[in-house]
Every structure is written in C-alpha cells, then in structure tokens.
Amino acid sequence: MTAxxxxxxxxxxxxxxxGFITDIESDTFPPGLNEDVIRALSAKKNxxxxxxxxxxxxxxxxxxxEQPSWAHLNYPPIDYQSISYYSAxxxxxxxxxxxxxxxxxxxxxxxxxxxxLEEQMALAxxxxxxxxxxxSVATTFREKLSEAGVIFCSMSEAVQDYxxxxxxxxxxxxxxTDNFFACMNAAVFSDGTFVYIPKGVRCPMELSTYFRINEAxxxxxxxxxxVAEEASYVSYLxxxxxxMRDENQLHAAVVELVAMDDAKIKYSTVQNWYPGNxxxxxxxxxxxxxxxxxxxxxxxxxxxxxxxxxxxxxxxxSCILRGDDSTGEFxxxxxxxxxxxxxxxxxxxxxxxxxxxxxxxxxxxxxxxxNAYRGLVRMTPKAENARNHTQCDSLLIGDTSGAHTYPxxxxxxxxxxxxxxxxxxxxSEDQLFYCRQRGLTEEDAVSMIVNGFCKxxxxxxxxxxxxxAQKLLNVTLEGAVG
Amino acid sequence: xxxxxxxHVSIEDKPxxxxxxxxxxxxxxxxxxGPNGSGxxxxxxxxxxxxxxxxxxxxxxxxxxxxxxxxxxxxxxxGIFLAMxxxxxxxxxxxxxxxxxxxxxxxxxxxxEELDSVKFMQLVKEKAKMVKLDExxxxxxxxxxxxxxxxKRNEILQMALLEPKLALLDETxxxxxxxxxxxxxxxxxxxxxxxxxxxxxxxxxxxxDYIQPxxxxxxxxxxxxxxxxxxxxxxxxxxxxxxxKEGAAA
Lengths: 482, 250
What we know:
The complex is a heterodimer of chains A (482) and B (250).
Chain A (H helix, E strand, L loop, with lengths): L5 H8 L5 H6 L10 H10 L4 H14 L41 H10 L3 H7 L9 H16 L2 E4 H7 L1 H7 L10 H9 L2 E7 L9 E2 L13 E7 L4 E7 L10 E10 L4 E8 L13 E10 L5 E8 L4 E4 L2 E4 L5 E10 L4 E10 L5 E10 L4 E10 L7 E10 L5 E10 L5 E10 L2 H9 L4 H17 L4 H15 L5
Parallel strand pairs in A: 2-4, 3-5, 4-6, 5-7, 6-8, 7-9, 8-10, 8-11, 9-12, 10-13, 11-13, 12-14, 13-15, 14-16, 15-17, 16-18
Antiparallel strand pairs in A: 1-2
Helix pairs in contact in A: 3-4, 4-10, 8-9, 12-13
Chain B lengths: L1 E10 L2 E11 L4 E5 L6 H9 L5 E9 L2 E2 L5 H6 L2 E4 L6 E5 H15 L7 H14 L10 E2 L5 H15 L3 E5 L7 H13 L6 E6 L4 H4 L4 E6 L2 E6 L2 H19 L1
Parallel strand pairs in B: 3-10, 3-11, 6-9, 9-10
Antiparallel strand pairs in B: 1-2, 1-4, 4-5, 7-8, 11-12
Helix pairs in contact in B: 4-5, 5-6
C-alpha cells in the first residue's frame, strides 16, 4: 500500500543494476490467476522454493474464501480472473513524450501542490533524460543506514539477501488465513518493503518509500514488513502527496509491523490515489490489511493515516497489544467526496497487562461521499488494567454526504477502562457567512475549518508531511461546497 | 458613504423591510433602534451580504457603487464589517490564525502587502490590549467556549484589526453586563474617526449612554418611522416603542 509513484522509482532506479530487473523489463502476464501463474511469478523473481510454497499454500486457501461483504461499501463484483498478476515496469519511452500530452487537470493539481516541473514530468510518466538528484540522495541515504545496521530494501531483495529474517517474520502478524484480500496478497504479492532495525538502534532518519530505490511496480499487491528489535525506534512514511493516475483498479496490500521489548514504530501514510471521476467511474479499490504486533513489553506502535484518495478504501490498521505495558495508537483523517466510499478504522486487541490504546478518527464527507468509521476495541480476560480512549469525529459538508460510525467494544476484564467519544458536525451556513464577512472566500473558509478539524491528526505527522497533507486536503476539497 | 433608497427585502417571500431610506455620511455614527421584529438584524445582514435575503425593490449605494452587486467577501474587502449579535464558533480554528488569514485576505484584495507573522503578532497584541481581551483567547479556537462578553470583545478586536470604513454593530450590547458593555463601548469609541462610519443596531438605549450617536433612527415594521438626534433615544427610553407607533399612526 503505497502511493509512491512507480515512475519516479523507475527513474531513480536507473543506473542501478539489480539482477532480476533486466529480466522482467518487457513483459506482462496475461490475465488470470492459477498455480501456474504463481509459479511463473515466483520464477521471475528468482525466489527460493520455500517462498513459492508459501505463496501456493496461500493460494490454495484463498480458493476456499469468499470476498467479504460486511463493509459499508457498494461496488460491482471484482473478476479476479480478468486481472494480470504480473506486469513489468513500463519503460520510460512508453509514456507521454511531453507534458503537453498529459491530462491538463492533473498538471493543474501538481501546480497547486507546488511540485517542481521535473518531478511533475516523472510523476506523469513523461520520458525525461535528466537524472534525478534523488539517485545521489538515495545513495548517501543507504550508506548512512547501513552504518547504523538498518536494513531497508525491497521485499524481493530481502527474500534473496535476508531469507532467514523474512522467513521468521513474514506472515507472523497477518497470516495468509487472516482474510480474503490478505490471503490473495500472500499468493501474488509483487514486491514491497522490508525494514529491519537492530537492537538498540534509533533509525537515523525517517524512512520514506519516496527515496527508496529499486521499487518499480510494487503498487498493486504490495507487501511490507517492518521489524523493530529490542529498544529500537523507526519512523516510516509511505505514500506520496502527488496524485497518481494508477491503471491498477485493485490494490490489496499487506503491512506487518513487529515491535519487540521497548521498541517503537511510527508508521505514517498519506494516500492520494485516483478517486474516480464525478460519476464514480474508475478509481482505485484499496483493500489493505495493516497490523502491528506489540510483541515485546513496553513496545509502542503508532499508525497515522491521511486517506484522501481511492474510490473505495477498506482499511483497518490495527495493533495487537501482546506485551505487557505496550501502547497502540491510531490517528486517522479519511476524506470521502464525489462518489468516494471509505470504510476505515482500527482494531486494538488488548492481550497484555496495563496495555494502552488511543484512537483518534476524523472522517470528512462531502459531495456524495460515504465515510464509515469501523473500530474494534477488545479487552481480553488477561488484559488487567487495560485502557482505551476513542475519539471519533465526523464532519459533513453539503447535504448529500454520509457519515457512519460502527464501534465494536468487547471488554472481558473488570479492571479495564474504556472511553468512547463521538461527534458529528456540519460546516454551517453561519460559519461560512462569518468567515466570508471577514474577507475569506468560501473555499478558504472550508479549508480552514477542515484543517482545524484535522489538526490533532496532522500534529502526529512528521512536519514536512503535515504541511503537504494540509495542502493536499485543500486541493481535495476544492469545490466541495455548493 | 452609504445611501439606501426604498429598500424592500423579503425572507422566503415574507416581506421584512418595506421601503427603508437611510443616508449615512463619512465619519458619522448612527443608531438604529426598534422593537423586536422590526427588521433591524435584517438590515445588518442585507448590508453585509448574507444569503437568503431577497431584495425585491430599491437600491443600496456604497461609496457610489451598487452594493448588491458585490459578493459577501468583496464587501468585506471594501471595508464593510459586521459585528454579530451571536458571534459564530469555529471549533479547531485557532483565533490567531483566523485573524491573520482574515486581515491578509483583505490586504491582498486591496493590493497591500500581507503582514508577516512577527508584524501581525505585534499588531494583534496591541489591539487586544485596546479592547482588554485576554491574550490567552488568541490561542484558543475562534469563539469556542468563550463567554458572551469575550465573544463580543473578540468581535471588537476584529473590528480594530480590520479597520473598516463602515462598521455595523448588531445588538452588540445584548447579553453583556455593565462592565463588559463599558469595555466594548470604549473599544468602539476608540475606533471612532472622521474616516469611519458606524451603525449601531440596538434594542435598548443603554449602549447609547456610552457611545454617543450623531443620529438616531427608529425602525418599525420595516421602515424608518422617525429620525433625530441623540435626544430621540432618551425620548424612546421614557415612552417606549408603543408611543411611536401611535405617533406614526397619528
């Protein structure tokens, strides 16, 4: 699950020689999913036997599953046999030859976001000869990380270079039996990211997919695994604030986080994929399974997400609070406008003693958007003194949008404390008049009120990300009123 | 400065103002008094450009320009300010940010340079002192959880900051105790200037003990039935509005 523009990574990737890249450059599998496809995929990636077996096991299980239908989402059935499960990265020459050939609306959005021209060209897939500065950035970046002993590479590389680590942790948080989409991902995942922080290491920089090299074509079925050993710390950012017209309709990603004793993982996402047009045609179906395992004592996992894109979002970044005194956090802003539908939230599973969780969810609905918060807080019998605080706020813009809240609360320990606060508000005509009377345009007024509404969540994002998220929200909600 | 001729206004086809005439000169302070339902607030809203008020007849000229052609925010850019009877709460929007955005939006529209954070901060602190607004309120969300008096003072602070040419104060005295009323009135008095016109819309005479108007008008059933000097307010205080109605009928 990343909005990292594949084409940028492709450009960044140039000048690096990684074995399998040249092999796969020119081909795409015909549509369809069966064991042969999985074997071919695994062979393309030169995977060891155990990896293939892992995929096949998942595939066989997937055949027994049905697509879930409990979410507050409405979409036509997906034909899984009409999807191609392997597509090589496009060669730069296949794209548009200049920005003139790119959808002007897209260029307009880039300009509003203040994306430099070179980068715009790369994002839109224009063939550029200029070598990105990011190549050198990425190189120095890697050197610095390896000095600290941090492993940060693609999942494909990790399977080759760190098979023991991958075998130990892959699927240990989200097993292939977890759900329909996670199972499918296990069978056909194309690539993803692997992060390993050794004991006692504080990762010297924010890890961002943006700077990661060798990342081409990981969008559709991405698999990410982050392991933080004892007393380590890492902050991982995924996504890009630039809108990407991805051709893939279906995205089914899996993210697994493992935090050992005293480790902390902070995972931030800004997702801005194509939401479809005004009539609801096109757009990404985003079915993601994200889960963190606070395996160690006093471990801490924090999810922050800003979800503004995709036609359908089905996503519940969760924490299993296994270690005593561990902490889980979930901060979310989800926007549904136009015909977008979002069903998102979290699960906090309290297993250990004195475990704590915080949920702050801000849902914004505009146009015909439908936004649902779905969250589970479970306090198991052994979770002595577990605590949760949930705050769930919905903001409605206009009168054709919808906000829905589905909190599931299961408390099986009498010492547990659980608080749930929920509000629903609407940007009122009074508020807009007040702002306009003070000289602000209606759109400035809306963005000011919306940003105020989201502040608590934006505060959790790394600084430069927060600024971009704010800009992004303004672009997203432009024209949302009236 | 402002010339209102034969103004007729309806809300959802219900006539509220019925042929109102009013001339306001530069630097003048006018009080508009009247019983509940006489159309006082409607006048403030029509002048400031609130939606839902339909002008069926008449015209309003503001500095020689057709006011009704202008959008709400354009009127603000051109110097019209409405201090509201019930200032609106904007939860989550920092008061300081709101004031800065507002001031800079107006400065931009006028082709003036925007104020940077340092200059703005100095200015806002100076003005807050003037209206005796606790600086802590600047750091909170706009009007959210403010007391009635704090909200009104926040309105006067905005007025002091935006330096309008035409300030409309809609029932600014309502809900204020005598101390708060005095502070608000002092703020308004400090902003009196030969370049600034003020319209005080009020039900009671007591605000006029603190702010001396040049002209007093009495609004009844959607038109001005009497105009005079400040002595008219005292007369009203003594005799009540019913006296006026009889007088108008006679």
